Amino acid sequence: MAENRSVPEVDRAAAARRAVERRRARAALKRDLTMRVVTPQKVLERATADADSVEGSMRITDFLLALPAIGAGKRDRILAELQISPVKRLGGLGVRQRGVLRGWLDSRFPVLEPRGARSRLLVLAGPTAVGKGTVAAYIREHNPEIHLSVSATTRAPRPGEIDGVHYYFVDDAEFDRLIADGELLEYAVVHNKSRYGTPRAPIDAALAAGKTVLLEIDLQGARQVRRAEPAATLIFLLPPTWDELVQRLVGRGTENAEERTRRLKTAKVELAAQNEFDHLIVNEDVATAAAEVVELSLGSAR
Ligand SMILES: Nc1nc2c(ncn2[C@@H]2O[C@H](COP(=O)(O)OP(=O)(O)O)[C@@H](O)[C@H]2O)c(=O)[nH]1
Ligand SMILES: Nc1ncnc2c1ncn2[C@@H]1O[C@H](COP(=O)(O)OP(=O)(O)O)[C@@H](O)[C@H]1O
User: Fold this and answer.
1) CA–CA separation, 260 vs 170, rounded Å?
2) Is-contact 250 99, C-beta < 8 A?
3) All domains of the chain, ordered by start, with CATH?
4) Distances from the Cα of 135 to the Cαs of 14, 199, 267, 286, in angstroms?
5) Which of 4, 87, 240, 242 is the most exposed place for a label (fewest CB within 10 A)?
6) Which GO terms describe its cellular component (predicted)?
7) pLDDT digit string (tens) for 116-160?
8) What is the ipTM, given to two decimal places?
9) Which residue CA neighbors atom 16 of ligand 2 most closely?
10) Any binding-site annotation on 91?
11) Is the distance from the beta carbon of residue 127 to the nearest atom of ligand 1 less than 6 Å?
12) 268 is in an annotated binding site
């Protein structure tokens, strides 16, 4: 029997379909914001241009939560500081509210203009256990065209770490000699404990051979490289959430409770400095994060 549906029923079905589509579009927008596929400034611009757009209909609370390293507590503090009601949608913000929100976004997530010619030197930094080593190992396996720098360190090797592959494991006397002989591009005491440094010669040779070089180093090292090589590309790897970071550190099982506490203290300092970096990448999934790093390396090669 032909399906006789009244007009209201047809309208209701169409409206239901539209609601599902909008929900899907909002979920995709949240993911793009978290993965830094779109800048928050761009989303705010689109919401301002069209209040009925997906961006315009996004609640300010969802918008802030979608940003890297913003949890519910921080979201509420930001809204109070900016004096924006949590029930607002992006498209419904007033001129003042849009102005203060844009100012906060520019301070927290600066949209950096390209700084002219980029060098082929990439720095990957980020808090302990965010997954730097895992992402770097994935790149080592899948992108042999990228030279991964092997650091020298005075820390003891972890189970499975191979001398000359993961690190050059040296004692303090040898590390002092490397410094004295000017063999390190940068070096630092990390987690107030061991020393880490980047041997200069392999980097110079790889760059001279036209290869892209990836350094996986800490915030202090990244700052030194920025000073020595302003055209280097600095990338900060973020955890999806703070809790996930803690879980990864505990799950890795390579430090005792005291060392974990020490490292998490450093992690908070490093997360607060992420604005010094050119790009933020959330390590939700290793392959995706690695692909984003490689994508940036292609940008530097241009
Ligand atoms: N400055 C600097 N930091 C480094 C170097 N190599 C590794 N690091 C950093 O030292 C910190 C400690 O590394 P590691 O002991 O492997 O612990 P993890 O951070 O938990 O992986 C991490 O932030 C690394 O990025 C280096 O050559 N120079
Ligand atoms: N995307 C991810 N999802 C879940 N666990 C991850 C992810 N990336 C890394 N890990 C795990 O987190 C722990 C810390 O990773 P690691 O590479 O040692 O971090 P880092 O080098 O930044 O200190 C490891 O146990 C690793 O297997």
Assistant:
1) 23
2) no
3) 9-108 (1.10.8.50), 121-299 (3.40.50.300)
4) 44, 21, 18, 6
5) 4
6) cytosol
7) 567 889 999 999 999 999 999 999 999 999 999 999 999 999 999
8) 0.95
9) 131
10) no
11) no
12) no
